[in-house]
Amino acid sequence: MTIYFAEWNAEYEKLMFSLLKSKNKYNIIVLNKVMKHFRRHNLKLKQKNISNKWFVKIHQFFKLRNIKPDDIIVCNGFSISGFIDLVKDLNCKKILILRDTIDVVEDSMKNKKHWLDKDKSYIDEIIPYFNKVYSFDLDDCQKYNFLYLEQFLPFTYSDIQKIRDEFSQKVRTSLTCFFVGEFWPNRESIINQLTPVLHANNCQTDFYLVHYNKQQDNYPSEHNNYQQTPLTYQENIQKSMDADIILEINHTGQSGLSLRTIEAILLNKKLITTNKAVKNYEFYTPEQIFILENNYHELPAFLMTQFEPINIEKLYKYTSDGMINNIINGYKIENLL
Questions:
Q1: Per-residue model confidence as pLDDT tens digits over 172-197
Q2: Are residues 309 and 184 in the same domain?
Q3: What is the pLDDT of residues 6-16, one digit of tens each?
Q4: N or C: which terminus of the chain carries fewer CB neighbours within 10 A?
Q5: What are the DSSP calls for 100-167, one per residue?
Q6: Are 311 and 166 found together in one domain?
């Protein structure tokens, strides 16, 4: 069985495949040119009510013809809208992994990418064509009958062991809190309230609040409490490693774990988060994780706490090989029934 990952192009995803392949444990093929010469022309054909049947078949032949019935193709929630017509009738096992909520993905597809018509539903247009749909968000799993999949980092379990060993030996002389994320007004408001509290308690801040369309209303041209320069994933993870505290400000209504949470637990960092649902996870302790509400006055005490790092064996399910094995074992169990 071969596992094909189609259009996983983010930096952290490329790092994940590089690390997985270096371990020689899985038969993985990455397909990062599925949409090339397809998405834009396919949309035009559909907009003009011209049949795309042969256009789709030609692209399937050149790009996906090696996929066999026992193989698995894994698509991600954001890119799939650009090539769903290539996947609909593929004769193989088809998996969709959602690493954000349905509301966020649908908004992105309609209002940012414009890959989904305003009057269409992501649930109706995408979900029916997959054998299994995994989501990191428990609320979406219950609402749409998805399978739950833990949020995972690009690192394998052996990478986590190495990283922990290296950074446990570093000596800290001062506190630093790190945040990086897309600009939203509520994030700016939280950062503006949080920054003076941290500074007053001898904790430096390294905050990046970035918008990729600076013409948007209410996006400030400059600000003293955060920087606006985008970071690469390598820069992002390095800053997480160098910090003592990681800040996470989630989408309103998001209940699933983000990468920030897993990075904090993996790297033995403290976490300040707006995600109340983090209390439901086995790694939660109030000494390591501070749930931010209207309780800024409690932060000084939290900054002084000591915590016991979670046993590394409990982190396997949050690794990239943990994710791969979860998918493979799901099909093995299914075949035994």
A1: 667 999 999 988 888 999 999 999 99
A2: yes
A3: 999 988 899 99
A4: C
A5: S-HHHHHHHHHHTS--S-TT--HHHHTGGG-SEEEES-HHHHHHHTPEE-----SS-HHHHHHHHHHH
A6: yes
